[in-house]
Specification:
alpha/beta; Rossmann fold; 7 strands; globular; binds S-adenosylmethionine
Length: about 190
């Protein structure tokens, strides 16, 4: 099976349980809450958001303000939940969708817990920067060999990629891979166009 189909199948099957899992104390997911803190710190309260690898659209439960959400995701089932939260869905791969989106067409481009699945991070970053009018917010997981071995999907370590001129660039304890109890460090990025 092609890798993207493995990811699609995995998240289609998880979709109905995803929110419960993401909020569980065992998973200890912190990166979404950290994104919320960044929005608060910079007083970002309204505008359009492109959520890259949006999953069920949990981000929209957390952010306070008046935002319009569009989400890219390869999993139709995850997107169904995002649609119920008011997302405009783009059912496509990140790699396929980003090049087709116009320059500066969303105020904010956010990608949380998703870029580890993308092989060519430089291409994705180039498009994400091009699409964002006001700011980007990203989480980049530190993907260790231990995590790669524990994952049923192909994942990539982009945690050391150079991102120049970021206003925020720091590490948090992002989440825990529950099956093997592996704690994952996550790099949080906030960057505005120069
Ligand atoms: C860990 S979930 C994160 C979802 C959401 N951003 C959150 O933080 O709750 C990863 C999501 O990325 C999607 N995804 C992974 N690789 C993808 C790709 N190459 N193209 C599109 N979606 C992808 C999955 O289907 C899944 O919904």
């Amino acid at each position: 099976m092609k890798e993207i189909n493995v990811i699609e199948k995995y998240y289609d099957e998880l979709a109905a349980r995803y929110d419960e899992k993401a909020k569980s104390p065992e998973l200890n997911g912190q990166y979404l809450n950290e994104a919320k803190k960044i929005f608060q710190r910079y007083n970002l309260q309204k505008g359009s958001i492109l959520d890259v690898g949006c999953g069920t659209g949990l981000l929209s439960d957390l952010l306070e303000g008046d935002f319009e959400y569009t989400g890219i995701d390869v999993s139709a089932r995850m997107l169904q939940y995002a649609s119920q939260r008011g997302y405009k869905p783009i059912h496509q791969t990140i790699e396929g969708a980003l090049p087709e989106i116009e320059n500066q067409s969303y105020d904010f481009v956010v990608s949380l817990g998703a870029l580890l699945f993308v092989e060519d991070i430089q291409a994705s970053l180039k498009y994400i920067k091009r699409i964002a009018l006001k700011a980007i917010v990203l989480s980049l997981d530190c993907v260790t060999d231990e995590l790669i071995q524990a994952s049923s999907m192909t994942i990539y370590d982009h945690s050391k990629v150079e991102i120049l001129n970021a206003l925020e660039d720091y590490l948090i304890l992002g989440w825990t891979k529950t099956s093997q109890n592996i704690s994952v460090n996550t790099r949080m990025i906030y960057r505005t166009p120069i």
